[in-house]
Amino acid sequence: MRTIDVDCRNVKSPKAFQILLQYALDFPEWYGRNLDALHDLLTEPIDRHVRLHIGNPEGEMAAYLERVIQVFADSAEENRHFTWETI
Length: 87
What we know:
This protein is of the alpha/beta class. 44% of the residues lie in helices and 20% in strands. The protein has helices at 14-24, 35-42, 60-78, and strands at residues 2-7, 50-55, 82-86.
């Protein structure tokens, strides 16, 4: 299992969060950096389990993270190799 910790403490915008996720999750360069693209890549078949920890959302990120959490929940239902939690 691969565990990835994403610290949102210094992330000030949804765009910055999407860039952070792109690099943390090794998404391809063509990743669209939006919630639909996030769902698409999280539900692609993978051969190992990935657990994503998201922590320290502040300000604008706290509100955006509510939408992201819904994408994570939907993606985890479709992909048994993906789990997540806020820390």
